[in-house]
Amino acid sequence: MSKGLGDGSVPDLTGKMKDDLYDYLEAAGFKLGEITTEASEKPEGTVLSQNPKAGEEVEKGTAIDVVVSDGSMAKGQVPYMIGKSLAEAQSALAVAKLNCGTISYEFSSTYAEGEVMWQQYDAGAALEKGTYVKLRVSKGTKPTEAPTTKATTTAAPEE
Which of 3, 9, 57, 88 pairs with 65 at a CA distance of 20 to 30 A? Predict the structure, then answer.
């Protein structure tokens, strides 16, 4: 009579990251099987589906096959850039796989020179990768015009 590992309930892997699967499955008594990729809006490496399905009772040690996102259709999340320097905003856009669009400059009594004071899309908005995001940057406070002094001539007293 064979004493196998016994049956176990397959854990739900959907939404987990590919890099975490090996240890997670090993702790649950299963092995990682074949990994295939598929185009998806989910971030690269996110588990989209699995076989056997979550909750199925299978023998411990069974290999669980997964399909993970290749990230090709993932969207970029707009970062919060208000009050940041232009360089910081451009870097944050690049990390989000978005592009810096038209930059306009205006005077501001609220934001220091070089700080982003407006962004085209709200922070957290999901945009297609590569979308251009317009920014408005402060030129600092508007210089006050120096009062002009006119030379006044006094007429010589008449004699």
Answer: 3
Fold of 75-138: Trypsin Inhibitor V; Chain A (3.30.10)
Whose tokens are 């944050």? That residue is 92
Model confidence over 50-59: pLDDT tens digits? 999 999 999 9
Question: What fold does the segment set 12-69 form as a domain?
Answer: Trypsin Inhibitor V; Chain A (3.30.10)
